[in-house]
Amino acid sequence: xxxxxxxxxxxxxxxxxxxxxxxxxxxxxxxxxxxxxxxxxxxxxxxxxxxxxxxxxxxxxxxxxxxxxxxxxxxxxxxxxxxxxxxxxxxxxxxxxxxxxxxxxxxxxxxxxxxxxxxxxxxxxxxxxxxxxxxxxxxxxx
Length: 142
Known about the structure:
Distance between the termini: 6 Å
Strand content: 25-35%
Largest sheet: 7 strands, antiparallel
Shape: globular
Helix content: 10-25%
Strand order of the largest sheet: 1-2-7-6-5-3-4
Mean pLDDT: 88
Structural class: alpha+beta
Radius of gyration: 16 Å
Order of helices and strands: EEHEEHEEEH
């Protein structure tokens, strides 16, 4: 599989964009990282036993319909979706997460955007390590 990658560093900020990332690959990379908040999300769940699909979105603040425990990391959310047997029964339209000093955006086009401040050597090393982890994950998915 081919992946598109764009990295931009400007004015102490880094932006990395990856196209072609499977949603479940996020668990290996970000699953256990503590999150500040889910800043924006929209999921669709299409259960054939129900007449209407369920839409879970940040504007409705209704994530408790699918996850009853507070979300402190992405793993519990990813496990919920992984437990849906048919991948066609749900869609991740958008998932934006704020971590301590960076954020991610994942959308239904399999695009992952990572943005954050990169103002010193420690942060540079963090983003470099994150980049390598993502690339290793993509290689292992092939």
